[in-house]
Amino acid sequence: MPDRQLASSQRKTDFISLPDSFFTQAVPKIQDLAELKVVLHVYYLILRKRERPYFLTYKELLSYGLMAEMGEETLRQTLGSAVEHGTLLHSISNINGMLEEVYSLPADSHQPPAINIFVLYEQNIGVITPTIAEELKEAERLYPPQWIEEAFKEAAALNKRIWRYIVRILERWASEGKDSGEYKRDIKKDDPDKYIKGKYGHLVQR
């Protein structure tokens, strides 16, 4: 029972990846612990977003646990220091007809990284076996990250949380084209059989 509980808690864990620039550019400029805490939490909140907009309003920050406890005056000062040091960006944005203060990350780190295929599998299907791990690696090599994430979402929306079903979605997109069909044309130009050759060809066989 404890092992099952541990496995369950591990599957629910969410991860973010901090860009290299955070350590090479942001950290050396941070002056005190309060600023470090605020910057880390802003990175965390923005990088875990799956969709735009990739920023946070001041009101959102003020309502978030740690920053709410700091008090508005301290939070203002800390955010001001972070903006002055270039670890955060500050601007005014029109949101639903209201002018809002928003904070975002430097240009080289504002886009959340593509989610890891192993995390997607654990969140949507379950425990990864050695065999599945090899198939996930091969799928990651064959398909664009955005396709993989969207295939998992489509399967989940249809309540088809099965790896074979997700593979079929990816296979169909590779064969018939997806959206504009541009990726399909690239496949044909490169090698029309690239998705059915090799050791893991069974992944895309009809």
Keywords summarizing the entry:
Arc Repressor Mutant, subunit A; 206 residues; disordered N terminus; 8% strand
Q: H/E element string?
A: HHHEHHHEEHHHHH
- Percent of sequence in beta strands: 5-15%
Q: How many domains in all?
A: 2
Q: Indicate the structural class.
A: mainly alpha
The whole-number mean of residue pLDDT values reads 77
Q: What is the terminal separation in angstroms?
A: 39 Å
Strand order of the largest sheet: 1-3-2
Low-confidence stretches: 1-12, 180-206
Cα-atom radius of gyration: 21 Å
By DSSP (H or I, 4+ residues per run), the number of helices equals 11
Query: CATH architecture of the largest domain, please?
Result: Orthogonal Bundle
CATH class of the largest domain: Mainly Alpha
What is the molecular shape? elongated
Major β-sheet annotation: 3 strands, antiparallel
Total number of beta strands: 3
Q: Helical residue percent? A: 55-70%
